Amino acid sequence: MPSQSSVLMMPRPLCQFMVAGFFILALLTCHASAQVVLKAQPVEEEPSKVVVKPAEPVKQDLNASWQTQREARALTLSVPAPRGQIVDRHGVPFAQNRAANYLALVMPYMEGSSDAQITEFAKSTIDNVNRVLGKTWTLSEERVLLHYKHRRWLPLVFSVEEGLNVEITPDMEEKLKPLLGNSLVIQPAYLRHYPLGTTACHIIGYTGKTRPLPTGPIVDGDAVFEEMEGREGIETAFDSDLKGQAGIVNVLFSPDGKRLSEDVRRTPSPGRNVVLSIDYHFQKYAENALKKHTTGGAMVIMDVTNGDILAMASNPGFDLNEFVPGIRAKRYEELTKDPRQPLFPRSFRGEYPPASTFKIVTALGALDSGKVDAKTYFDCPNALEIGNRVFKNWNKEGEGSMTVVSAIKRSCNTWFYRAALESGADYISNMAVRLGFGERTGIPLKAEGVGFVQTNPWTLQHLGAKMQSGDLANMAIGQGRVLATPLQVCQCMAGLGDGMRIPQPRLVLQIQDMADRVVMAYEPKDRKRINLNPEHRQAVINGMIAVVNGSGGTGHNAAIKQAEIAGKTGTAQWKIAKDQNLAWFTGFLPAGKPMFAFAVVYEGEPGEDVSGGKKAAPIVREVFTNIFEKAPADDPMLLAMKDVPKAQVVEEDVISTSDNVQAPPPPPPPPPPKKGIGGFFKRLFGR
Question: In the prediction, which pLDDT does 71 show?
């Protein structure tokens, strides 16, 4: 694995481009640069080179009235360019091209023939194919006549089912050899190919037809076969780079209708290659763990040093190749109506209550207020009355009085209620915005989730009053109105791991042309400066280290032997009507010198008992164990981690209620809410 700062150069594999054996055979040979650092290596066998051999003419007896008549024609046509590749940071291809063959009808000029005779000629040719292959392909009379009148010089593909072209396999072609000739030809084209199937499907996206082939009179620039455009993911976000430049060919026909010459005026120029920040192995380990442990969930891994998104996995997913050359209507309906939502990219579009992972924000905001410090003790009973509501802790037993370190380790709700009420709403909401919540991260994928952070200005505008204490208490533990995507939570951890800035999440490293030249590079940059107070940051990190490594921590199931993890568990009320909850685990590693930030969300089943420690933490352990154990011994990642000092586990004293030690008094009861608001909050907090 080369270092993450390496210049990524990638040679395009040898490409062959064939357009209609009827009139064009052009070859695009793409040469590798002499200064190659990165080479794209398919993980599956590359599609074989496709060579279109001219079919041996088959003598066809035509009725006298169908004899081909003299007619000359010169055509100038557009040859769509092959799309560029999409590859991971090491050159592993996610999207490529492959050749496909279809069956097409070639219509001779039949002077004086009736419409019925023309359509019968087409029908008899197709019927012969159907008898050999056992198919039921057909063309409407209207389609045949339109093609004959306006476009008979070009092949007309008829191997079509449900509006999608059907490929001709080598076995089918062998059976058809006696029929191939002047009226029946193999029409080559190229298709998008996703060699890794479901891997990174929500990131890569898929393509669709730019437009149907025209049926009217041929005009200069008409495409010889269907062009494709991006519809989702990187395929659409970088469509202008991937699509390349179409070629131009002039074709001349003799007076008797035979092709005399082809003049390639401009060779199709393949699209550019898009090099992602994603590491195929990281992505695959994350997807495999999600499939194994969840029916719905997501995981994001980021490089703390430069913001590179190394994995952004969502489960369930789908096979990208089902969208090639297009997806059947019935299958698409199955995917869109599947209650598991396989098309939904949970990792960057899913907006969830962040639950106790948000307590990191609350702790930093409270410490920043100056009203709470690293040695402030708050009592942690099993419940706390705030206003006219009782807010409970997850532990039914009181846990005594504790500081921020123990409160994070034990994830004590009542401590964070007290800390938030003591510091005030502005410090908590401002810290959330400071750490990137409530706004898109800026990755180049459409419809990224925004999330939401309630603030006093928003509350005044929409509810007519500042945030009530119940609102603040709920937000303090990542419930209520606050929402975040897994990518936002991971980004927050990258910021905390660095302490001074949040790196801009980077999904694309560079764009390369067909000669391996880098035409666009996306350099690492800071998204924002956060300049966390070092003492406050260290107190919070001490608590996160204790979550995984300390006695009584809630995240022991995330621990791995290769590095110390600093983490935070979370369990959120989610779809209350269905009794579905969420489990979270987020953090970074190594704790002493953060390199990787991560976030995992686990969607519980209706009625399932979930917690971050039981459901999400084991996913983190499995993924990072695979990453470290399966990396080569000389991997720069492993070498860099050898020098990381082991972080010290800080065990703060917890003052038991039986120790007769005076803990700080509870906050004074807040003023009653304004008339008309109580019913709203009763519905909001009546959980």
Answer: 61
Place of tokens 């007076």: 255
- Which stretches of 565-676 are DSSP H helices? 617-629, 636-641
Between β-strands 273-276 and 86-87, what pairing exists: parallel, antiparallel or unpaired? parallel
pLDDT at 634 over 60: yes
The whole-number average pLDDT for the span 331-342 is 96
Residue entry with tokens 């442990």: 293
Structure tokens given for 509: 């490293």
Task: State the pLDDT at residue 12.
Answer: 32
How far, in Å, CA of 424 to CA of 467, rounded? Answer: 10
Residue 96, SS3? Answer: strand
Q: What is the DSSP letter of 134?
A: T
Q: Are 278 and 312 in contact (CB under 8 A)?
A: yes
- Angle among Cα 42, 80, 209 to the nearest 5 degrees reads 85
Q: Rounded to whole angstroms, how far apart are CA atoms 492 and 170?
A: 53
Q: Does the pLDDT value for residue 430 go beyond 70?
A: yes
Q: Which of 441, 458, 51 is nearest to 277 (CA)?
A: 441
Query: Which residues have a Cβ under 8 Å from the Cβ of 623 and sit 6 or more positions away?
Result: 282, 285, 286, 289, 299, 301, 311, 598
- Tell me the residue type at 539: A
Other CB atoms within 10 A of residue 580 CB: 18
Question: Do you find a cis peptide bond into 457, omega within 30 degrees of 0?
Answer: no
CB 584 within 8 A of CB 613: no
Across 342-370, average pLDDT: 98
Between CA 164 and CA 326 the distance in angstroms is: 6
User: What count of residues does the chain have?
Assistant: 687
Q: What is the 3-state secondary structure (H, E, C) of 319-376?
A: CHHHHCCCCCHHHHHHHHHCCCCCCCCHHHHCCECCHHHHHHHHHHHHHHHCCCCCCC
Look up the pTM and report it. Answer: 0.85
Mean pLDDT computed over 145-150: 92
Tell me how far apart the alpha carbons of residues 681 and 463 are, in angstroms, rounded to a whole number: 11
Which residue in the block uniquely carries the two structure tokens 């006696």? Answer: 178
- Computed over every residue of the chain, the mean pLDDT equals 85
Whole-number Cα distances in Å, 523 to 279, 509, 562 = 17, 7, 30
